[in-house]
Amino acid sequence: MRSSKEVLPKCLLLILFAYILLEKNGVEASHRIASTEEHQNVPPATISNRTGYHFQAPKNWINDPNGPMYYNGIYHLFYQFNPLQPVWGNIVWAHSYSTDMINWKPLQHAIYPTKPFDINGCWSGSATILPGNKPVIMYTGIDEQNRQVQNVAFPKNLSDPYLREWVKPDYNPVIKPEGEINSSAFRDPTTAWYGPDSHWKTIIGSRKGRLGMAVLYKSRDFVKWVKAENPLHSSQNSGMWECPDFFPVLPKPMLGVDNSVTRNGLKHVFKVSLDETRYDYYTIGTYDFIHNKYVPNGLSPDNNTGLRFDYGNFYASKTFFDEGKGRRVLWGWSNESDSTQDDWGKGWAGIQTIPRALWLDGNGRQVVQWPIEEVNKLRKKEVGIRRKTVKSGRVIEVKGIEAAQADVEVSFDLSSSLDKAEKFNLSWSDPQKLCGQKGAEEKGGIGPFGLYVLATDDREERTAVFFRIFKEGQKHVILMCQDPTKSSKRTGLYKPTYGGFVNYDLRKSGGKLSLRTLIDHSVVESFGAKGRTCITSRVYPNFAVGSNACIFAFNNGAEDVKIIELTAWEIKKPLMNGI
């Protein structure tokens, strides 16, 4: 993926010059890994805003999760990393491994610029497992002509359980931007799948004018690739498609299938990261594996008003099939929302969101996401509230845990007030805009109600996660919002209110509605209605830090709201994360 801050600092030229000198003198190019002491050299003033259990580098910049992979009992996470600075540039493929996707240990960088086909950059890509249980990485290199080309890399030693070293064959690039392909808009190959025609397939994000497209390529041996006559999918007026992802999905909670599974009736998810909006969008549809065409089901828009994995600060996402547990797992990048100057001051930028299991909702209209079960192993001290009513205009504090690093699950009962919901205006088509107009303090009928997190005891600082319930005819419309406008007393922060509609039938549920929120110092990840709508925000409280952070259940609606059960856990820090 190309960063929105696409600049090549002078230090990159120095690195590349060093590589060239080493190779000319017959010395194998090496890539220095910063020491543990250097990684720990983080400015003390910003430690309170560093995450505790999310994946993040101890210092410098990270972005896209490139090729998450499960191989021989070990999880591998490759990701875009600047080893020199807390801003985009000098990008390499950093590499960490884990046995549970929570506790991570660093390895040497897997891929970095050394060859003519990637000398100006090693950008995003994916991992695929070939026959014989052989992993391969396909990634976008920026070559000597500054073209975006696709390269492959293989483990140097398959007997090494950690796959520490990767080799880039000299026959790279395996795919070049030929014909009408725009050489500056041709990147991020997805995980390949094997078809019934005995060919591997992959797609690469591109555009032709304003036409966004996933260019399809086929190969018998993963070396010689041929461009298909037509894209797998395309859409008008969407601009550049980055980080495409394409995979089959099952309507069974927590279960997934391998990318190469093809059978009649199997639904597929097609996702793109739109460069123009910096959000991820997806559709659900059918893959015609005979004619190699993806057809959306038409139940959601196939543009930038469509479905999103996450309606907040979440981009360049990537899934993989976890063969060990038979599930589809989603990773996403959450960038900072303070300033570049702040990033320089604190010495780090970017995190990966908590890995999520992903499956098809029973209604077939959307996916459902939920934090992987391994997150629960981090829970320690537990407190709870049972069968309490949050009266109009009141709050209930959740006491007894360190609230800056926590996991909260709450179930609300709205059954007695559903008929008193506000009327829904059909012109309210943009949930983010609606959340901004009707913030956490504007009184409604049912709602806003939810949680104040990373709050001071006087709630002068707080991030609000909440619902509003509307009525449209005999149905209800659920709006979920995340409002960080009062999250910090600091100035110069980008504090957008995010929102998404929740496709969930309150009548069928008996008026019950759930919310789960993961809180980790500078990130708030929320899952509404058991993961049907998800929102991530980055926040930087000044005073609601450490032991001064609080959690409240609140209700600013006219109608009282009942808490069936609220459970909050203090979360311990993993043994190691980042690189």
From TrEMBL:
Protein name: Cell wall invertase 1
Superkingdom classification of source: Eukaryota
Secretion signal, residue range per the UniProt entry: 1-29
Organism: Dendrobium catenatum
GO biological process: carbohydrate metabolic process
Gene3D superfamilies the record matches: Exo-inulinase, domain 1 (2.60.120.560), Glycosyl hydrolase domain, family 43 (2.115.10.20)
Ranges for domain Glycosyl hydrolase family 32 N-terminal: 54-371
MF (Gene Ontology): hydrolase activity, hydrolyzing O-glycosyl compounds
CDD domains attached to this UniProt entry: GH32_Fruct1-like
Entry keywords, A to Z: Glycoprotein, Glycosidase, Hydrolase, Signal
Annotated InterPro entries: ConA-like_dom_sf (IPR013320), Fructan_Metab_Enzymes (IPR050551), Glyco_hydro_32 (IPR001362), Glyco_hydro_32_C (IPR013189), Glyco_hydro_32_N (IPR013148), Glyco_hydro_beta-prop_sf (IPR023296)
Residue span(s) of domain Glycosyl hydrolase family 32 C-terminal: 374-570
Family, similarity comment: Belongs to the glycosyl hydrolase 32 family.
Phylogenetic placement of the source organism: Eukaryota, Viridiplantae, Streptophyta, Embryophyta, Tracheophyta
